[in-house]
Every structure is written in structure tokens, then in C-alpha cells.
Write a structure and sequence with these properties.
The protein is built from 8 helices and 9 strands. The chain has about 240 residues and is an alpha+beta fold. It has a single domain, classed as Dihydrodipicolinate Reductase, domain 2. The strands form 2 sheets. It has a 7-stranded mixed β-sheet. A two-stranded antiparallel sheet has the order 7-8. Helix 5 packs across helix 8. The longest helix has 20 residues. It is globular. The chain starts with a helix and ends in a 6-residue tail after the last strand.
């Protein structure tokens, strides 16, 4: 894709909308400004409702849930703390697949990946799909001088309290377009500006390639039950 875009002299911008979502943009600004000191630990999660489409069940055609759901996490963690991932270790599990009619080999619907960055920061990514309670995407960044928590499970700033049997009802995000509505719009505006101005896109093909490399390393990790250096993976 990168080579094709260069040969055609067109803009290639990767659709990592979290880089345009206001709270993620603000968090990046604060981290770059040193508000929480040096990033030491980052935790990112994405949980999606419903099964992905059938083609994504097959690891050989989709790279699995770590690509379908968590590629955004692999991109945003390195973007937020400003350092490349150098090693990963992944564990996966298939808990809901059999009851949902998924019978392909190597399918997994839960994953946890530990990360080490070039800066010596460490982190985790966890993903689950289907997560029947709704769509959920949050990040926590622990710095040497403070903490940032990005995102909230609540979809609206409202709390509904019913009788004691039902309890408190908190509206949550049901889909990713709801969760990242502002980010999608800002992403499109940025792409149009790049096309019109002839400037470098804010999310490049190389950013996408680095996320793919991390996904491939994580898939190799859980299949081989060992930590995998990203330098081992060619993309």
C-alpha cells in the first residue's frame, strides 16, 4: 500500500481515529509537555460487542482479533508515550466461540499482551470480542510524576438509579462510531487538509506497518508460547 501510494503520488493516511479523538489528543499533549513526567507504564484496552465478520475468524486471513480489534491499541500506545514497541508476550483464550458457532482453528476472543518499549517503559493491551456489555476503549498512563486516565466506560454523563433489584443504570457506548464520533470527523478533516495542502498525513503508512508488525509478533508469541522481539518480524 505504501509503495502503491508513492508511485501514484496520492495521499495514504491510516484510519487510526484515536489519534484524532479529543481526549486522546489532549492526553498526548500533556505527556509531551511533561505533565506526568516520564511515561513508565501504559495500559490500553478495547472490548467490542458482537463477533467480527466470519472472514476475521480465520487467523490466516485476518491476523485475528489482535488485528481486527486491538490494532488501534498497538498504534495508540506507541503514539501516546512516543516510543516504539520492541518486545511482546501474548496469551489468548477462546471462551465464547463454541457457543457462538465459531469452529475455525486458532480462533480466540480474549487476548492479553505485555509490552516493552524502546524507552524501557512497559505496558499491557487487553482485548475481548464479543463483549456483550457494549463497546469499551480506555487507556491509563502512569508517569514518574503523575497519572492520566483516558476514556470512560460511560456513554453519557448521567446516572439512573432504580429500585434495589435493578440498581444503578449507567448509559454506556454501544458501538465504536458512538465512542469515537469526534475522532472520525477530525480524522476526515485532517485527511482533506493533507490532500489539499500536499503535506505529510498525521498517520502514515509506516505507522500502520508498525502496528501490523506488533500484531504479527503478538500472534507468534501466543502460538509459540514465548516473548517475541519485533525485530524478528518482517513486514
Amino acid at each position: 500500500m505504501i509503495g502503491a501510494a508513492e508511485r501514484a503520488r496520492v495521499v495514504l493516511q491510516i484510519g487510526f481515529m484515536r489519534r484524532f479523538q479529543p481526549e486522546f489528543v489532549e492526553a498526548r499533549r500533556r505527556i509531551e509537555g511533561g505533565d506526568i513526567g516520564d511515561p513508565m507504564v501504559i495500559k490500553s484496552l478495547t472490548r467490542g460487542p458482537g463477533l467480527p465478520p466470519p472472514w476475521a475468524w480465520e487467523l490466516k486471513t485476518s491476523n485475528g482479533m489482535l488485528a481486527e480489534v486491538n490494532s488501534h491499541d498497538f498504534d495508540s500506545v506507541r503514539w501516546l508515550i512516543g516510543s516504539d514497541i520492541v518486545r511482546v508476550y501474548a496469551e489468548t483464550a477462546n471462551r465464547k466461540g463454541p457457543s457462538r458457532g465459531v469452529d475455525v482453528p486458532d480462533f480466540y476472543d480474549n487476548a492479553v499482551v505485555t509490552l516493552r518499549f524502546a524507552s524501557d517503559a512497559i505496558g499491557t493491551i487487553d482485548g475481548s470480542c464479543p463483549a456483550d456489555y457494549g463497546y469499551d476503549a480506555r487507556v491509563e498512563v502512569l508517569g514518574s510524576e503523575g497519572l492520566l486516565v483516558i476514556g470512560d466506560v460511560r456513554g453519557l454523563a448521567i446516572l439512573e438509579v432504580r429500585d434495589r433489584d435493578v440498581g444503578a443504570m449507567i448509559p454506556i457506548h454501544r458501538t465504536w462510531p458512538d465512542r469515537f464520533a469526534d475522532g472520525y470527523r477530525a480524522e476526515m478533516r485532517a485527511f482533506v487538509r493533507t490532500v489539499l495542502d500536499g503535506t505529510e498525513p498525521p498517520v502514515t503508512g509506516d505507522d500502520g506497518r508498525r502496528a501490523v508488525r506488533a500484531v504479527l509478533a503478538a500472534n507468534r508469541s501466543w502460538q509459540e508460547a514465548r516473548p517475541v522481539e519485533l525485530a524478528e518480524v518482517a513486514v
